[in-house]
Amino acid sequence: MNGRDVSAIDRLYSDDYLYQGPEGATDRGRDSAKAIAQHLIDVMPDRVSTVEEQVAEGDRVVTRWTSRGTPTMPLLGRPVDGRSATVFGITISRIANGRIAEDWEIVRVVENPE
Question: The domain spanning residue 61 has which CATH number?
Fold first, then answer.
C-alpha cells in the first residue's frame, strides 16, 4: 500500500483469492483485490500504513496494522471533513502455494484530533 503498486497483487495473491471484510463484504479474484487496493489509495492518497505486529503459524499469518492519512472520499461511513484519520485493522491471511489465498479482515476508523 505504501508503494501504491497494485500490480504487486499479481505476484502475491492466488488466482482464486477470497476477501472477507467488514460488514460482510466479500470479493473474489486478483482483479477484485486490485480494485479494493486502488479504491483505498484513492480514498486516502496520503495514507501511510504500518505493520504493528505479525504472527505466522502453519498456513496462517495474522497482521495487526494501522493506516494514517486524510480521506478525500467517504471511508467506512465516515464523511469527508478534511480531518485526518487512523484506520486500525487485523487481517488473517491463509497462504497456499506461497501466495495469499484468503483474507479475513476487521477494521475500525478513528478520527484524529486536529
Answer: 3.10.450.50
Global confidence as pTM = 0.87
* Domain range for 103: 8-111
Question: Could you read off the pLDDT of 5-56 as tens digits, one per residue?
Answer: 999 999 999 999 999 988 777 889 999 999 988 988 999 999 999 999 999 9
How many independent structural domains does the chain possess? Answer: 1
Whether residue 3 lies inside any domain: the answer is no
Q: Is position 78 within any domain?
A: yes
DSSP characters for the chain? -TT--TTHHHHHEEEEEEEE-GGG-EEESHHHHHHHHHHHHHHSTT-EEEEEEEEEETTEEEEEEEEEE--SS-BTTBPP-S--EEEEEEEEEEEETTEEEEEEEEEEEEEPP-
Distance separating the N- and C-terminal Cα atoms of the chain: 24
